[in-house]
Model the fold of this input.
Amino acid sequence: MHPHVGESDWEEGLEQAASFLKAASRVAVLTGAGISAESGLATFRGQGGLWEGQRVEDVATPRAFARDPRQVWRFYNLRRANLAEVQPNAGHRALVDLEQRFGDDFALITQNVDGLHQAAGSVNVLEIHGSIRRVRCTECPYIVERGVEALPDLPHCEKCNSLLRPDVVWFEEMLPATIWSRAELAVVRCQCLLVVGTSAMVYPAAGLIATAHEHKARVIEVNLQATPATQGVDVSLLGPSGTVLPELVRRVATAPPL
Ligand code: APR
Ligand code: ZN
Done:
């Protein structure tokens, strides 16, 4: 399960990570595409990733949409169709349990646009990159949840008949301001940040890890492999989040032996 660490390191890492979480009164979590991989959704970077054989500039920028909205919608409609087939996994569910322990002192910041955290039952979810379950008008304020239902090749606004777009953040676009400031605040205030399944390469999201360090929070990383963030973190747990998170959260829930 975790070929990069010996059994004792593994135990030690889990115990240490659990102790950081237990010691914290506020916890923030940052997730990326890796947490949904075990549900059967492709990640972006690396082998078999969504950006493999596809130029980001062709499907995930405002320029791409202006030039060829059909191509962009083809990409997103395919991803919406994939969503109809998948379920949250044990990693998503473990974060629901973690939220239940911390209640209002817990924030789940996600770069994912798949909605699987909410589907699992997470409540305080900050979708800093938006959601492909929502569409919005390119001209008027119209915005609506469309779930995973099939959309036309080129959907138009019910109000003004302009082109609709997915309510996601593309490269070169600003993040939704209110959600982003809540995410930053959650990281500033937490004593422990848990970073799961992100390559930690896309900013400003990845910058939340540095923010946590600056504010003296413990940082735990769960990933299949090392990332640019790994060197700086307090604990790195190398393994699939669907296995690591339930094990970690179980230890947080368990009272230490007397
Ligand atoms: N368990 C844990 N980690 C995993 C797993 C797994 N089962 N499978 C993959 N990973 C890790 C990979 O090792 C990688 O570090 O998840 C990470 C996925 O990285 P990316 O594909 O780059 O996804 P992400 O970090 O979410 O990308 C950030 O880039 O294109 C944009 O807007 C898009 O929100 C996305 C942003
Ligand atoms: Zn409109």
